[in-house]
Every structure is written in C-alpha cells, then in structure tokens.
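hiii, so i know i said id send this last week but things got crazy w the move. better late than never?? heres the sequnce for the chain we talked about at the cafe, plus the structure i predicted for it. fair warning i was half asleep when i ran it
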Amino acid sequence: MSKQKMSRRRFLQGALLTAAGSAAAACQPKTVIVETEKVVTQVVKETVMVEGTPQVVEKEVTRVIEQAVPAGETKMIRIMLSSWAVAEVPFDQMAREFSDKRDDCEVRIDTSVDNTKVLAQIASGKVEWCGHGIISPFLDIVSKAESGLIQPMEEFINASGEEGAADIMTDIIPSVKEDSSYNGHFYSFPYSFENITFNWRVDHFREVGWEAVPETWNDWYEVAKELKTWGAAEEIIPTSWVGALWTDCGALICSAMEKPYTEEGLVDWTSDEAIEALEFYRKLVDEELTPPHGFDGWLETYQRGKLSSVQAQSSRGVWGQMYHGTDKVATSPIPTMEKGGGAGTVYWGNGLGVINKAPYPQEVTDFYVYAFGPANQSFQKAVIQSGKTPIYNSSYTGILESDPMLATYKWMVGMRDDVARSLPVPRNNFYLIQHQMYQKWIVSFIEDPNMTAAACAEGILADSRAEIEKQKVQ
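okay and structure toks below
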C-alpha cells in the first residue's frame, strides 16, 4: 500500500449515554394482527414482595412490534448512525442495495443522533426511527437497554429470511457475542470489533535487531531502551500509550491477570498485578522511553514517523500503514506480564441496535443481516480494509486466510485468537467514571515522584466508588 494521508473523518469518535430505566425478560412470544398494528404478547416473569417474601409471578405484556402498511406503500426504515461510522464503512451503499432488493422497504441513514428525542417518541408510542448506532457495549449497552432505548433482537434474527441469518449466532466469535449481550439478550448487532494491540514500526525494530514483536513487558522495556539509543539523533520516541484507561493501564492489567475485574464490576486496582502495571508504566515514562506522561502528542509523533510503537486500538496499526506503508507497520497482540499469561486484552464490538417500539423492527434487522451478516462478503472485505476486525469465524477462514488481495490484513487472525480468550468488560456504566479518575491520577502519579503506585491505585478506586455512589443518589 502506498503512503496516504489519513482522512480526518477517521479520527472522529462517537459515544452515547442514556439514562437508566427498566427492562423485562420475556419468553414464548405470540404475534397477532390487531387492526393496523402487529403486536406481540409475551409472558414476563418478575419478582415481587408478598408479605415480605420475594415471589416470582407471571403476567402478560403486549407491545407493538410493527405497524402494518397499506398495500403498495413503502416502509421507511430510518437508522440513526454516528457519522464517524458512516465515514469508515459503506453503510450508505448497503442501504441502497437493500432498498433496491426489497420492493417493500427503503433504508435511510441519518447521521444526526438524538437519544432524548427518541426516548420521548418511545414514551409517546410514535417512533420515527428503527435502528440505532453505534453501540459500544463497554460504554452504553447497559444504559441504552435499561432506559428502553433499544430492545433485544434475537427474535427478529431468528425470524429473518435473509441469507446467513441462521448462521449468525453460531458463526460469531463467542466472546464478541457475549460482549454484545446484556441480561441474556442480544442487544447490539456488531459489524466489527476492536481490541487493544501493539502497533509497531517493523523497520525501526529491525534496526536494533528485533524481528519479532515483544511478547512480555520485559521484552518491551529492553527493545525500548535499544530504540532510544538508536533513534536519539532523530529524536525518535521508542513507545507510547494514548491516554485512555482501556488502551493504557486497563490493557496492562488484563495482560497480567486472569480475572482483571472485581465482583463490583471495577478494574481490580488494588491487586498486586495492577500495582506492577502502574510501576511498569512509570518506569518507561521516567526513563524517557515514552512521551511526557506516557502519551503527550503521541498521534502527531506517530504521523511524523518519530514513534516506534504504540499500544492502542487495532485500527491504529492500519493508520500507521497508511502513514508509512504496509511494509513498515505491524499490528500484534499486546505484550503480557508473563509470556502467554493474563486474560488477553480489552475489546469491544461496534454495533447497531433495534429501537424500542420501532415501526419496523423485523425489517431493520433484515437490513442488518443483509448488510453485515456472514453471507455478505463484500461488506466483510470493506470492514477489513477499514482497519476494523470482522466478527465471524467464517470471515477468517473464507476471506482473510484465502484472499491474496487481503494478505496485509492477516494480522487480524491473531486478533481473533486473542479476543477469543479475552473477557468482556463488565456490564455496567462505570467505564467513563473510571476513565476520568484514571486520567486524573495517572498524571499526578507521573508528576509526583513521592506518590507510590499503591497510592495511585487506591486514589483511582476511591474516587471511582465515590462518583458511582453520587450518581446512585442522583
């Protein structure tokens, strides 16, 4: 691949949060036509207190799942979708193809996202939109499910007549499926996943005698020292993080622990391994093997060719290939504290959901199956070439391992294997809280030589718990 300048739209990031509410699990749906609407009656189990004793009771709940359309009219399938996703993968093209294929439907992609407006429409029972994205499960699957913004979609996938629908739940990488689920239901239909990886300049590493990726923290430290000496005259920085919880110490802790999260759903900050991760982080910063604070100005340095490696999302390796050439940048699993140890890495799917009380939930799910189901190989290839990793095992055996035109993306096979052994982030709304506290304390930790790693970890944990408690009260 020739060197290219990365479009600025690739750097747009989207994350949405909604308020918490309630959701009910259901079984044995029965669909009937009532006047101009299709409704589903479900038996819902819930726990109630009877004279101080919890008892499980059943009740019938009826909800609209589809508005009937007079013969000859077209169903408008509106999907609100983050603009950065539309800039990266061909959702618009898929919408046109599906609309041409289905005489009864027209898919429209809207890049303006307004959760508040949709929730108000859901409350009124008159909803304009059918689909919603992007859902990043570690950020917002809980809030969007609990608030009633999105609904489970396995019922619609099972009912879909689109090619590949029957294979989705068995073909998807199990850990990615788990990441897309909440309370036993599939809420987010992912079109790709990202994981935290080690993105490195093969040409720089080769200059100091390293042909392979460092496998352990000690390997990483040793090669960084050699790169510092080799690149001193050119002011080359050996390595970097990017200044976020999951990309930095969150990933280090996952690489060190089999169980990196506590029962309360937080990073296990006070574990011995977390303390060692913080100490390793500061050692690299103190010895000037990273930018100031471990991440200052990393992206501009990476673009200029003055950064030899960075621990970040897998797509950042593809960015590096666009900046410098596919022969100069590689993407590999992150180094672990002990060789082969830990719980893999941090990862998440990029997905779309079905809006609660959507006028056409079956049709929008059909679109999802058509557009980014396992049978649509052209879309899978477009996702791969965007730098995002595919979610289906068949995409690896049927595309990545067999298509010579995608040879430069075979590193994704290693990402599939790494994520297959990784743990999904706990199902809660705590990420942004921990992220903010981490950013606050990691800077203090680097700037104050008297602060211990244990004190830093305890500060992150205490402040996170306090903010979580404050939000509960509110």
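btw The radius of gyration is 24 Å. thought thatd interest u
miss u guys!!
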